[in-house]
Every structure is written in structure tokens, then in C-alpha cells.
């Protein structure tokens, strides 16, 4: 058990899974379609292994996406924001409020359609920059305002 296990972690929205799967399957769909057309045109049975392999790879990547998204969370403490990611290769990024320079909220077309956004924290040190993908859009705006206020308060104390 680690020191950060006792934090009040807030998981990202499960809609992030949908957003990532849409992106994955659009890309794979084009590749599967192209290889299937090639297989039809060549009339060679062995060419069908390409679209089949892509479909299997897509199923495996879909499982990975679900595992990654369900491991992504953030926690606000009195002095810093913590962001954790990963299951196999775990990382916890701790960003002190006083070190934050600015906070971005970004959302692409799929994210906007699903009502989620990415909160990007910027600090003077690129090693402590952190991002939280899959935050509900309303919460992302509130989080940006809260982090900016806390950052200004901590910076004023320096």
C-alpha cells in the first residue's frame, strides 16, 4: 500500500472509453476495409489473414483501452493535484498548486459530442505537467477554475 492509496481519487468518465474506441475502430475499420478489398481483388485466400489479424488486434486494443481508462484518476489535496495512470506501468504525477502556470481545457469533436474534455496542467518543469482526459465538460471547467484559484493563492504565498 502506497502513500497515495488513501487519497480521495476521482475516476474519469467512462465515456472516455467510447471516445477512444471510436477513434480506434475508425482507423482499424479503414485498414480492415482496404485489406478486405485487396483480398477480394487478388482472389488469394492467404490475403484474408490481414483483415482477420487487424480484427484480432482491434479486439485486443479495445480491451487495453478499457483497462487504461479505468485506471485513470485524479485527486485534489490541500497542497497539490495528483494524477494517476496505468495498470502495468503505473505513474502518479504530483503537481503542487504553487507550481502551476496555467490550466487548459481541450475537447475535440468526439469529446464534445460525448460531453467530456481534457484538463491539461502546465508548470515551469515539463516533467510535472499532467493531463486528465475524460473529465465531464462541466467538471472540467470547474476544475480549471479551482486549480487556477488554488495556484494563484499558493503563488501569492511565495
**Strand content range:** 25-35%
Along the chain, the helix and strand elements come as EHHEEEEHEEH
Please identify, by name, the CATH architecture of the largest domain: Roll
Q: Give the strand order, joined by hyphens, for the main sheet.
A: 1-2-3-4
Apparent shape: elongated
Largest sheet: 4 strands, antiparallel
Radius of gyration: 20 Å
Low-confidence stretches: none
| Total strand segments | 7
CATH topology of the largest domain: PH-domain like
Terminal Cα span:
33 Å
Average predicted local confidence, pLDDT: 89
Please identify the top-level CATH class of the largest domain: Mainly Beta
Domain unit count:
2
Return the structural class.
alpha+beta
Query: Number of DSSP helices?
Result: 4
The helical percent reads: 40-55%
Name some characteristics of this structure.
PH-domain like, elongated, alpha+beta, 4 helices, 158 residues, 48% helix, three-stranded antiparallel beta sheet
How are the SSEs placed, and which strands pair?
Blueprint: E1 10-11, H1 15-42, H2 49-70, E2 73-76, E3 80-85, E4 91-96, E5 100-106, H3 109-114, E6 116-123, E7 130-136, H4 137-156
Antiparallel strand pairs: 1-2, 2-3, 3-4, 5-6, 6-7
Helix pairs in contact: 1-2
What do these coordinates show?
The chain is α+β, with helices and mostly antiparallel strands and 158 residues long. It folds into 2 domains: 15-68; 74-156, PH-domain like, CATH 2.30.29. Helix content is 48%, strand content 25%. The model has no long low-confidence stretch (mean pLDDT 89). Helix 1 (15-42) runs antiparallel to helix 2. It contains 4 helices and 7 strands.
Amino acid at each position: 500500500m502506497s502513500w497515495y492509496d488513501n487519497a480521495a481519487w476521482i475516476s474519469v468518465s467512462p465515456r472516455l472509453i467510447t471516445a477512444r474506441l471510436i477513434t480506434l475502430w475508425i482507423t482499424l475499420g479503414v485498414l480492415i476495409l482496404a485489406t478486405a478489398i485487396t483480398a477480394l481483388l487478388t482472389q488469394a485466400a492467404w490475403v484474408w489473414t490481414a483483415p482477420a489479424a487487424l480484427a484480432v488486434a482491434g479486439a485486443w486494443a479495445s480491451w487495453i483501452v478499457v483497462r487504461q481508462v479505468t485506471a485513470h484518476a485524479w485527486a485534489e489535496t490541500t497542497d497539490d493535484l495528483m494524477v494517476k495512470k496505468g495498470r502495468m506501468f503505473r505513474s502518479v504525477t504530483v503537481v503542487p498548486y504553487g507550481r502551476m502556470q496555467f490550466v487548459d481545457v481541450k475537447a475535440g469533436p468526439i469529446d464534445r459530442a460525448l460531453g467530456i474534455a481534457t484538463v491539461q496542467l502546465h508548470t515551469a518543469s515539463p516533467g510535472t505537467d499532467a493531463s486528465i482526459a475524460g473529465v465531464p465538460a462541466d467538471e472540467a471547467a470547474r476544475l480549471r477554475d479551482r486549480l487556477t484559484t488554488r495556484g494563484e493563492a499558493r503563488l501569492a504565498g511565495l
